[in-house]
Design brief:
Number of helices of chain A: 13
CATH topology of chain B: MetI-like fold
Radius of gyration of chain A: 24 Å
CATH architecture of chain B: Orthogonal Bundle
CATH superfamily of the largest domain in chain A: MetI-like
Structural class of chain B: mainly alpha
Shape of chain B: globular
CATH class of the largest domain in chain A: Mainly Alpha
Largest sheet of chain A: none
Number of strands of chain A: 0
CATH class of chain B: Mainly Alpha
Number of helices of chain B: 12
Number of domains of chain B: 1
Strand content of chain B: under 5%
Structural class of chain A: mainly alpha
CATH architecture of the largest domain in chain A: Orthogonal Bundle
Strand content of chain A: under 5%
Shape of chain A: globular
Number of strands of chain B: 0
Oligomer: heterodimer
Chain lengths: 289, 270
């Protein structure tokens, strides 16, 4: 077809890929990369040029506290989801495929549910007059309701609920690829369940553990809704702080903190890419893959 | 190992984890039908008052309609733009396409609050705060990585020989696309559309910044509501959203299963 076409048509064919990519690139460049660049520039310029905003952010102990809180909450969620997900993924990886797929559907269903619906659900469950407290008081176990909502506990619970499917998917995809004959060989040679697990199964599943932990940790760093709704001022994360600063038109410090958050997240993602490859992230995105 | 495995314990543990995943989703349903005036559990009686509240309040309805309109526009834009990009990535790759693909994916890795702040500052200069088109474009940024991933997978699955066969048998480019390529791509297109819809439908952080007064979408109204009061109206909204999620999820699963069955059939024939 190309042979018959004139030179002008051939040129068009050559440019076609760029023309087709243009809308996507324009959107991402204009509405994402350019604004991000401006944000970085502003963090150095507002209100006066220089590093003043970064000096403020990095020397103020309360702001260090916020960075620390964010890192700790993220780490706590990582541990919580790992502890919850490992046995479940193990079980799923050993089931026959159709049954595993069915159960995996249930793991994925929360993905499809509005985050705000889940926030409301946790408020109903954990509140002072929430279902859990009413039940505990009703059983006569305590007279005063437990403080379950608007604290660190609620934030960890809410975030872990959101992040758990990511951990399960990451672990499951590694565990399903573990060669079962290695396990059979170990037990046929007299290895106990405990020995086989610690010496063979666990080391083989570690890539999934690492990638799941890194992914959950990275995602946890950016949470805004959950700490804002289920936490107290003591659970002010970086994202919540940024929003507050921008709302108070405190651009300099808000944008400086945003740049710090992006730097942390991109550094973590870069290490993810080097260790596991970026494509792994998308393997489980969507019902198609 | 299999024999010595404490299977019962494992199942109990897994059951507890599944309960942790599900109970919070289901708990809103009985609350939404409560006859009580405030949050009580178990509900004192059955009533549809909170649904009446929702359907009778123009603010809730307007927010819902706005969200649907935005999400539908986002679906059109994100699926269209994403399909074009995916086509180039799979069919017309050129040196540097890997980098471009990476660039198109970046909105996925930057925390949404940062994206929202960045977009906000640009929108202020261009007077796009609170505008419909502004929210649509901002949501499209968030949906695009998903539609690209799904459509790339869709294009990769197409057996090029089918298209070649169609050409050899005398079909033109247009009819080959319509009768061969498009039917194979259809499940991917649906999946991409569902993902784009949900990405927009559930988005709240961006709207907090750029929504202005006019752009109160359903999630933003829910967010503001949850900050001030928790009455069961929001349980009614949640139950409706949950029903909607179940339908979307079932559709996507159905497409996946059907796609897999087709692929399996094709593999068997080859």
């Amino acid at each position: 077809m190309r042979d018959e076409a004139g030179p002008g048509y051939g040129r068009l064919i050559q440019l076609l890929p760029l023309i087709l990519l243009a809308p996507g690139l324009a959107l991402v460049l204009l509405l994402f990369l350019y604004p991000l660049l401006r944000l970085i520039v502003e963090s150095f310029l507002d209100p006066t040029p220089g590093f003043a905003n970064y000096v403020t952010v990095l020397t103020d102990p309360t702001l260090w506290q916020i960075i620390e809180t964010t890192l700790i909450i993220s780490a706590q969620c990582t541990i919580a989801t790992l502890v919850l997900a490992y046995p479940v993924s193990y079980l799923l990886s050993r089931l026959p495929r159709p049954r595993a797929n069915l159960l995996m559907m249930f793991v994925l269903l929360p993905f499809w549910t509005s985050l705000l619906v889940r926030m409301y659900a946790w408020m109903v469950l954990l509140g002072r007059h929430g279902i859990i407290n009413e039940a505990v008081i009703g059983m006569g176990l305590t007279a005063t309701p437990y403080p379950l909502l608007y604290n660190r506990f609620a934030v960890i619970v809410g975030m872990s609920h959101f992040l758990l499917p990511f951990m399960v998917l990451s672990l499951y995809s590694t565990m399903i690829a573990i060669d079962r004959s290695l396990i059979e060989a170990a037990s046929s040679m007299g290895s106990s369940f405990r020995q086989t697990f610690w010496r063979i199964y666990l080391p083989l599943s570690l890539p999934g553990v690492y990638s799941g932990c890194l992914l959950v940790f990275i995602l946890g760093m950016g949470f805004y809704i959950t700490p804002a709704l289920l936490g107290s001022p003591r659970e002010t994360t970086i994202s919540v702080y940024i929003q507050q600063q921008i709302q108070q038109l405190n651009w300099g410090e808000g944008t400086a903190m945003a740049v710090i958050l992006v730097a942390i997240v991109i550094a973590l993602f870069a290490s993810y890419d080097r260790l596991f490859g970026f494509d792994r992230l998308f393997r489980n995105v969507g019902p198609q893959s | 190992m299999r024999r010595r495995l404490p299977n019962a314990l494992l199942w109990i543990y897994a059951g507890a984890v599944f309960a942790f995943l599900f109970v919070p989703l289901l708990i809103v349903v009985p609350v939404s039908f409560s006859a009580g005036m405030y949050l009580q559990f178990p509900p004192p009686g059955f009533s549809l008052q909170w649904y009446q509240d929702y359907f009778g309040d123009p603010q809730w309805i307007d927010a819902t309609i706005l969200s649907v309109e935005i999400a539908l526009c986002v679906v059109l834009l994100a699926v269209g733009i994403g399909s074009l990009a995916a086509f180039v990535i799979v069919r017309r790759p050129f040196p540097g396409i890997g980098f471009i693909r990476m660039v198109l994916m970046t909105p996925l890795i930057v925390p949404s609050v940062v994206v929202a702040v960045a977009v906000y500052s640009v929108y202020v200069s261009f007077h796009l705060i609170g505008s419909f088109i502004g929210i649509v474009l901002a949501h499209t940024i968030g949906a695009l990585p998903f539609t690209i991933v799904l459509m790339v997978a869709g294009f990769q699955r197409i057996d090029r020989r089918l298209e070649e066969a169609s050409y050899t048998m005398g079909a033109g480019a247009a009819s080959t696309f319509r009768r061969v390529t498009l039917p194979i791509l259809r499940p991917s297109l649906f999946a991409a559309a569902i993902f784009a819809f949900i990405a927009s439908w559930d988005e709240v952080i961006m709207v907090i910044f750029i929504g202005g007064g006019a752009g109160t979408t359903l999630p933003l109204r829910m967010f503001n509501y949850l900050r001030t009061e928790i009455n069961p109206t929001i349980a009614a909204v949640s139950t409706l959203l949950l029903a909607f999620a179940v339908v979307a999820f079932a559709t996507a699963e159905w497409l996946r299963v059907r796609g897999e069955a087709r692929r399996a059939g094709k593999g068997g024939a080859a």
